[in-house]
Amino acid sequence: MARITAGITTSHIPAVGAALDNGRTGEDYWKPVFAGYEWVKQYEKAQKPDVVVLVYNDHASAFDMRIIPTFGIGCAEEFAIADEGWGPRPVPVVKGHPDLAWHIAQSCILDEFDMTIINEMAVDHGLTVPLSLIFGQVEEWPAKIIPLAVNVVTYPPPSGNRCWLLGEAIARAVESFPEDLNVQIWGTGGMSHQLQGPRAGLINKEWDRKFLDELTSDPQALRHKPHIEYLREAGSEGIELVMWLIMRGALGDKVKELHRHYHVPASNTAVGHIVLEPAA
Amino acid sequence: MTAPTDIHRYLEELEDIPGTRVYTAARARKGYHLNQFAMSLMKHENRERFRADEKAYLEEWPLTDAQKAAVLARDYNAMLDEGGNIYFLAKLFSTDGKSFQFAAGSMTGMTQEEYAEMMLQGGRSPEGLRSIKANEKKGAR
After folding, report:
1. Same structural domain for residues B29 and B64?
2. Which residue of A185, A197, A275, B61 has the fewest C-beta atoms within 10 A of its own C-beta?
3. pLDDT in tens, A172-219
4. pTM (predicted TM-score)
């Protein structure tokens, strides 16, 4: 049987991808950002996940204003790297796992989550920057990836509770897949940041750290946090953090925190990264 | 299940954050063509045509005069007011060879250097920037 063995979250800042791709990780500005990911790279080498369900948001790359799926699941054999206006990132193509992806899509729909099934889609920095940070700069990604795209751009995004429940439904789907697979679920985006208006540049370290703590100590509080709190406390783009709750919902009641990294700033953003495992 | 959300209160609260235009349905509708114009700059040939004659390129889109003026002036706050979304407008500043940090900084009234320095010092505090209504109450006291 397939099983979810770990949940990992990370910010997915485009400038981090640019620093990696342009060989600037050794610069003083970037060193502390990347140092915090050394642990997880070793962890992943030992864990060798077969599949990652990667929760992220598209940033007007694959989707424009014509169609806005709230929850879209990528069921293709592979996903091209998006050209976001300065050429595609020089990273390996993303290979999917259509069998498991379609299984999750069917199972979630039967479980009353009306997923949008996506058979062709380019993936942008929201998905590829986490891959680079967690797997490193590799010739080929060491796991199959199931992209799960969430609308957090056009309001309203899904509620925290809905994200949590979708995580639970994904976990049930994975557990009912007959093949023996080691599956991880990643939540990406955040932490506090605002990219627009006179309030741009907002960072809230205290709130971010509490959010990281509560993933383990009080996840039920996170689940019922209203959107307006993310906006007021973590900036307009801090709303991306609702996606972390899909990851957290998939791990069950209790989790064990294995690793955490928090750093300000990377470009406009607070970098947050945490590694959790389900606890009995 | 949680209790049903009061949509009117939900939307009203989104307008209560200082210096912020939340990308609501109202803005998404207003800015539809502005955002789709920006999206068209994902294609190299469109970027070339836009660069060659910005005004002529903008004429191909059903934009309002205010939207066109905001684009030509690269006034990102005005573009947000006209229904632009920052991830779509990113195609415009990328066409100009500018970064997210440049664009974000340009909306704050700070120079690029001042903005970068603020980020290095830990960013902008949310203190006093959480609620327009709360600020007004404080001011009235």
Report:
1. yes
2. B61
3. 999 999 999 999 999 999 999 999 999 999 999 999 999 999 999 999
4. 0.97
